[in-house]
User: Fold this.
Amino acid sequence: MTAVLHLRDVSVDLPLGGFLSRARLPILLDISLDIAAGESVALVGESGSGKTTLARAVMGLQPVSRGTMAVDGQPLASAADFARMRRQSAMMFQDATASLSPRLTVGYLITEPFRIHGQPLADPETTARDLLAMVGLPPAIARRYPHELSGGQARRVGVARALALKPRLLIADEPTAGLDVSVQAEVLNLLSDLRRDMGLAYLIITHNLALVRHVADRVVVLYLGRVVEQGPTAHVFANPAHPYTASLIAAEPKPDPRQRRADLAIRGEVPSVLRRPSGCEFHARCPIARDLCRQVAPALAITGPGRLARCHFAVTQQEQGEEHAVEN
Amino acid sequence: MSSVVDGASPARRGIGRALMADRMGLAGLVLVVSFLLMALLAPWIAPYDPIALDVKARFQPPSAQHWAGTDHLGRDLLSRIIWGARLALGIAITSISIAGAIGLILGLIAGHGPRWLDSILVLIFDSMSSLPMIFFALAVITVLGPGTATLIFVIVLVSFPAYARLIRTQTLALTQADYILAERAMGAGSARIILVHLLPNVAGPLVILICMDIPVVIMLEAGLSYLNLGVKPPSPSWGNILSEGYNALRQAPHVVIVAGIPLVLATLGFTFLGEGLRDVLDPRGAGRRWG
Amino acid sequence: MTAVLSVENLSISYRVPGGCLQAVRDVTLAVARGEVLGIMGESGCGKSTLAAAMINLLPPGAQVAGGAVRLTGTDMLRLSPEDQRRLRGRSVAMVFQDPMTAFNPVLTIGRQLADFAGAHDPARAAPAALAAMLGRVGIPDPKRCLGRYPHELSGGMRQRVAIAAALLMQPDVLIADEPTTALDVTMEAQIIHLLRDLRSSFDGAIVIVTHHLGVIAELCDRVAVMYAGEVVEEGPVDALFHDPRHPYTRALLACDPAVVDPASGRLPAIGGRIPDLTALPAGCAFAPRCDRAQEQCGAPVPRHIPGPGRSVLCHRAGS
Assistant:
């Protein structure tokens, strides 16, 4: 079976600027990833990890410097490839309201994919109503303007528009950002229903780990534009192989006052891509860093079935975690 | 910072202020519409022929017969002002519309098109606006000879770069907006993005700027006509009336006053209207709708 | 324990085109020195209006329909504008969600901190004192930070500086409105840690306004849950999280993806929408969304006291 989305060694770098300067700044480095039909993969990392850049690269909004991409086995390289690909995939933006053209009605906006791709649109009103019904919105919403929608409604409109042409792949950038807890649950349930019913493949970009646990089969952790850990969500959360993943999980505030953390799991901030640290790029913030980490950059290595990690001590970490799990 | 009322935000501005702004806009609209009607209906509402001489009745102050008095050739001033509105608005609206259309197209191309084209267009806009306007206008008029067509040509040339730059800046900013990225991600082509998504969003500021510029053009026309470089006498341009009035300022001050009033009112009218439009044209402002 | 800041029967409304929007309704709360109070609720529940009233910075259009906000006994809402300004900042300081908006982009951090501190006591504006404060909020190399501009700092660093600026005024009450919402999870953990550390050294009360249950659980001693402008439940944090009495509190806790077992597949949601705040029902505002609602819920709701320091606004809390 071919993957819906296939990325092999994808790298993105940006010109550093400056007159006649040829220097380029690496933002993403050698990302490889496959997403099968009906599979949901989460891309996790702090701001500056390159996760949004990767989403934009897949949609052709950000030129790729090296590597190959394919959707449904068809390579993505030329403008024509991306034009074809955009009919089969859709993207939801982080700011749902801002991603809707402000002077057009919701009814027009959600039927726009038909107009863009020249698909037959015999009765725009019925189509709009059906799409709105699919995401649980009343037909009257079709006459509203984006600024008249609540955050949750705008998010649903974004989903309706993304699904208008029945895509194979949905890329969602922080699909619950800015939503209240109760509305968040509705949007997440909607996304999992649609995945089940339509066999969609998801690429979800988020820094919300609670979200990842609920919607992702697999998780990919990025740090400074590199994959540092990858694997099935349940296994990675239960037993992270990379200390960065472990720190992220530990940093998440638990909604239980009896589980307050006494100590900080992670200190400092993501270093600037202008000043990448030597050796393992995480060593300055890593609780288990040693001399080796400051000098030698670890490679992405297999640590278990379906699992990869970029750490010199990944296997030890993972084994310790397993022992710990057995003891409990 | 989050809104103080958690999204259930009431109108952002005080209701009193919004009403005041609306009243100004309304006043502007009324003034502009009156001038437009005056211009359109000039042949029917003007009491006299604007160029009919009556030398015996020269420099008459306002009276029941001549509501605004007469000028140095005994022509009825009210009729000349009404016909003058036709000329002034005709020239201003024609030239600014042409300039606006050119500016809109070039600005969109510069803002959304390839980089090299943008550089060339910006160079053109910049060199155009660096020309000293009055001397440039004088030079063109000297070459082409004074007259209405020359006047329109000059106004278009000197005003389109400002519009094009405005549209270009707006377009550049919007090209980075989430909704334009979203459209590109859906596969929308450049034509659709420009026509359906950029145009309605950049047109608002242009309409406002145009409204504010019309009085400037009316003044420019009046000024050039005053210098005998605009509309040729005996055509009843407001500038011509003023220019002729100044020659007899002591003898008959009413000429200058009467010709000055419409100039001031038209300026105020278009400016108020422009400011009112600025509030109305933003769909996010105070929950109002447009389109 | 005496309250340093207390809100008594406070009601605030906004005049809107369709009538009168009741943002805060009959809220009574108090916070003592050394205590951290959490105000929790979803969009439109009135928590930000309440926070604005606490610092006496209500937006134009807001009307105090009744009640008082007492700071060490003085009713702030009834002071002259001049006295209000003097009290604000020195006695109550605020930290916002996006610290960028709190700073002037063209002035250095040092210059702005000096202004904050010097407004009340010039001695505190000395660079050494400012640097010491920046060090206290965990900024590495505080001396260099004083010469920087707001945009040169990361979001987490700006939030630290904002907290330092607030503390420089030596306030009696520090109000933080969604202090971690704009930050990454790692930075959020660090800010939570910092605020918790401050409790021991800061001789005042802290009020945290947020929709994030995790932040409340990590940081607060007491919690007030707001719904449609009212405090529907109040109590010690442990009791409220482990023995919630109001159906809305229960539903909120149950919805949080962090507590739901991923294997269950579906997340519980609260059906329906918050009521129209311009036309509120006479009875319980949550009744239309409540799975335990009965006929009696249409009548005005009594406040139950299920235990020490607790209160619940629900007809069925007693049963």
In short: The interface with chain A takes residues 42-43, 154-157, 184-190, 192-193, 211-218, 220, 237-238, 241-242, 251-253, 255-260, 262, 265-270 of chain C (CB under 8 Å). The mean pLDDT of chain C is 86. The first strand of chain C starts at residue 3 and ends at 16. The first helix of chain C runs from residue 47 to 54.
